[in-house]
Structures are given as C-alpha cells and as structure tokens.
Design brief:
This protein is mainly beta and 287 residues long. The chain has strands at 2-4, 14-19, 22-23, 26-27, 31-37, 42-46, 52-59, 67-74, 85-86, 93-101, 107-114, 124-129, 140-143, 150-153, 159-164, 167-169, 174-176, 180-185, 195-198, 202-208, 214-221, 233-240, 250-251, 257-266, 272-278.
Length: 287
C-alpha cells in the first residue's frame, strides 16, 4: 500500500509504496519499494515463482489532473528486478487499475484513461509481461469508450480482458451501456478482436480457473416496463471452457443488486464463488 510520508516537511503529497510479507507465520517489517505522488490506487499480485508484482498510479504536481501507471517486479528474495516502469502516458489521467498474474509469472495490467469534462468514458489500455520478463512499455488500446475493465490470465500466459463498450444514446447523445466484450492475448501472440458476451452489461468480475476456464460476472437489468431499471438489476454470469465459446448467460442473483458491488473467486479445483450486495428494500442491504 502507499503511505504519506510522516516527515516534518511533506512535499506535495509525496508517498512511499510499502510491501509487507508473511513467512513462517510471522509478518515481516514493511519494505519501501518505490516512491510516488498523490497515489490513489495500488495493486499487488504474487506468482508461483515467488515474484511480487506491484502497480500503482503516480500523480503529477498537487492540483494537477495528470496521473500515470507504473509497475515494479520484486524477486523471490524481495529485491527489485530493475527500476519501476512507466506504462502509460504522463500527459493523461489514468485510473481503475486491474492486475492479474499467472503461476509462471506472466502478467496483464489494465487501466482506464479519463477524458475531459463532458466527454464521457475514455479508452481502456493494457500492458502485458512475459514470464520472467518486463512489461511492454507501449500500451495497447482495447477500446476507445468503456467502463473500467477486468483482467485474468491462465497458467499458459493467455490473458483476457473484459470490458463494456459504451454507446451514445438519447437526444443528448449521453453514453449508455453497450455490449460486454472480451479480448484475449496468447503468450506468443497479439490481442484478438473483441468477442461479444452480452448485448448490454456492466462488468463486475473476471477470473480464470485451474484448467484455463474463464468465469465472468456482470450487472444486467431486467428492463421491466413502468419501473426504474436500476431497481431490477441482477448479476449474470457466463463460463468459457478452454478452447470453446462463451456459454449463454445465466442469472445467478435475485433482483435489486447494488451497482458495482459484486466479486468472484475461483478455487484450485475450479469451483467458483460469487458475492454481491443486494438492497431488497430502501435502506436495507444484504451481502
């Protein structure tokens, strides 16, 4: 996590990135691995080789909008494997990081770029890392208009990113939910053309199982006439078996789920567990 420096003269939101490790049943002292400024987000993942991958946002001067994505790899001895990498443009505003790492050390990191006021959602960008290597320093834009994306990667290093492409709608051409899509990146190839999973959805989670299967969760609306659509939101899910197409969506939750409040985890045997927040009546929330 990042922590504001507690010195006598803080400098424009300067912060340290600290990593805590636990071995032999005891937590070790925190280790400062990088420095940042005005950092709102950090992400952490560990692979089967004992490497730790850390990603964060590095902000510009206090009061400025610019922020960019940086990443760092720590070896199984805790030492840095080279200096931090800058992965996104410093002249833009990055946010909503998502990081996934395979057991062999391959990784995929995604983020969104913020546009100016009134311009709607911005692009989703991504960078990949081969096992034992460094992240690609030239990000790939997967879509130019989207909500924040979710990433997963299997043991063979095939990465998948799930995102929802927004589309203009209504007389004011405001952006509404568009198709839910997924793009894949084999370890020895490039990014595929996005594949549609659902005509309209708000992505919530993506996970990869032990055999390479993918599970996706998203928020969907039942669209009952005469009722506010947000009161009829449900969580839908789909599975993509290895080498096969995405299965037809299945609704797994009751109605009235809360926006952006679902999560997913897969066990070593492939069993999936989903969690969401539901508001059955006003002022009542159930997990």
């Amino acid at each position: 996590f990042s922590m504001r420096e507690r010195d006598a003269k803080p400098v424009n939101g300067k912060e340290d990135i600290l990593v805590f490790t636990r071995r032999g049943g005891r937590w070790r002292k925190p280790m400062v691995v990088a420095h940042t400024v005005n950092d709102p987000e950090t992400r952490l993942a560990v692979d089967g080789r004992g490497e730790t991958i850390v990603a964060w946002e590095h902000g510009g001067p206090s009061g400025e909008r610019e922020s960019w994505v940086e990443a760092l790899v720590l070896g199984n001895n805790g030492k840095r494997e080279g200096p931090p990498q800058v992965l996104s443009a410093k002249s833009k505003t990055s946010y909503a990081l998502d990081l996934a790492v395979s057991s062999r050390g391959a990784a995929v990191l995604t983020w969104s770029q913020e546009l100016g006021e009134g311009e709607g959602y911005g692009p989703v960008e991504t960078a990949t890392r081969p096992a034992g290597g460094r992240f690609t320093t030239k990000p790939v834009t997967l879509t130019h208009k989207s909500l924040p994306a979710f990433a997963a990667i299997n043991a063979q290093g095939t990465a998948t990113v799930l995102f929802e492409r927004t589309i203009p709608e209504g007389p004011e051409k405001e952006e509404g939910l568009g198709p839910l899509e997924a793009a894949t990146h084999p370890a020895d190839g490039g990014w595929s053309k996005p594949e549609m999973i659902s005509p309209q959805a708000n992505p919530q989670a993506l996970a990869c199982g032990p055999h390479g299967e993918l599970v996706a969760l998203w928020e969907a609306n039942l669209g009952l006439s005469g009722q506010p659509p947000e009161r009829h939101a449900v969580i839908d899910a789909s599975i993509q078996p290895p080498g096969a197409a995405w299965q037809p969506p299945e609704t797994i939750s009751p109605e009235n789920t809360s926006e952006d409040a679902a999560g997913l985890a897969l066990a070593a045997n492939g069993q999936a567990t989903a969690i969401w927040l539901r508001a059955p009546t006003y002022g009542t929330h159930l997990i």
